[in-house]
Amino acid sequence: MYNIALLPGDGIGPEVIKEAKKVLYAIQERFGIKFNFKEGSVGGAAYEVFGAPLPDDTLNLVKDSDAVLFGAVGGPKWDHLKRELRPEQAILKLRKELNLFANLRPAVCYRFLADSSPLKNNIISGNLDLLIVRELTGGLYFGTPRGRENTGQTVRAFDTMVYTSEEIKRVARVAFEAARKRRKKVTSVDKANVLETSKLWREVVDEVSKEYPDVELSHMYVDNCAMQLVLNPGQFDVILTENTFGDILSDEASVLTGSIGMLPSASIGEKGPFLYEPCHGSAPDIAGKGIANPIACILSAAMMLEYSFDEKEAAMCIKDAVEKSLELGYRTYDIKEGEGKVLATSEMGDVIKKIILGL
Ligand code: NAI
Ligand code: MG
């Protein structure tokens, strides 16, 4: 039995979590895997009741679970709050508390959605299926010293990029392990022609690669990678990169796929519980209308089955069911084109559930 902490959060978070849960119940029925769900309060919803975006009760619930499925947090209602009370702090604090140092974002363009990609069919043509492994807890975003100096006439501001060999090693292992389950190719992205951290990055990744002789490693400069993602995204399997580069490249890769409503993610550490969430936010503009695309959250649940529980067949079953629903012409409004059947959030969940159960 797997204990799953469900953290729906704000806006469309609860709407998409409901559909992911529906799909996991279908998996339970079909594969005889048993799930035990417990819900926790998080984000603005938690602030309203407990005065904090990540209450202790929720943190304890999470730490007692085998995996966490997170919806989304935030909204204009809480934008005036000071930093540490804002809903978005919940996700940062969770990553820190659980020591999750690798963020995994697959970008897949489904054959049946290739027209929704800005690159269109000729480049994408069912050709985009990559996984970005981004280091999450080091680099420029956390390095010290950082700050400002006022030197009379001019103001100096500075940030520091720092990596230790241990930080690089552990995230590199995540990338090589992931590649082993895929097409066995890692592209490590850096700026080793300029940055000292990148030189160390390259050395350590080369060293780690010796543990994975079955995985092909290549190195690429980040500026070239930004171009290659648009020119020929099909060349990539797993992209391994540091925090800042990964932030930018994963957003670039995500728009190639069509809609943010389709993109799942996982945050992983040395040991669980790991955290799974759709890449999108709480989408206040469509919250409460029942029209959000639940697929990003449903695919996040599939990643949970794969990475936390090693239930490969069940994970594949969810991915296949999503693809089948698209093939059958079912769409939510964010991926609609032409005459497709546009469904509500819960109807899309129902379609995927029925495909899983063979109904
Ligand atoms: P967003 O991802 O919530 O929305 C961006 C656009 O995409 C909106 O037009 C929205 O309607 C659309 N969209 C997003 N998910 C969709 C889905 N599943 N189906 C259909 N359309 C979808 O990003 P935005 O607007 O920048 O942020 C809104 C709030 O969410 C903010 O408070 C932000 O801080 C928070 N946020 C939270 C995240 C998290 O919980 N991890 C991540 C990103 C933003
Ligand atoms: Mg970003």
UniProtKB/TrEMBL annotation:
Its main location: cytoplasm. It is found in: Cytoplasm. Substrate binds at R95, R105, R134, D223. The record marks Y141, K191 as: Important for catalysis. It catalyses: (2R,3S)-3-isopropylmalate + NAD(+) = 4-methyl-2-oxopentanoate + CO2 + NADH. GO terms for biological process: L-leucine biosynthetic process. GO terms for molecular function: 3-isopropylmalate dehydrogenase activity; magnesium ion binding; NAD binding. This is 3-isopropylmalate dehydrogenase. Pathway: Amino-acid biosynthesis; L-leucine biosynthesis; L-leucine from 3-methyl-2-oxobutanoate: step 3/4. It comes from Thermovenabulum gondwanense. HAMAP family: LeuB_type1 (MF_01033). The lineage of its organism: Bacteria, Bacillati, Bacillota, Clostridia, Thermosediminibacterales. Pfam families: Iso_dh. Its EC number is 1.1.1.85.
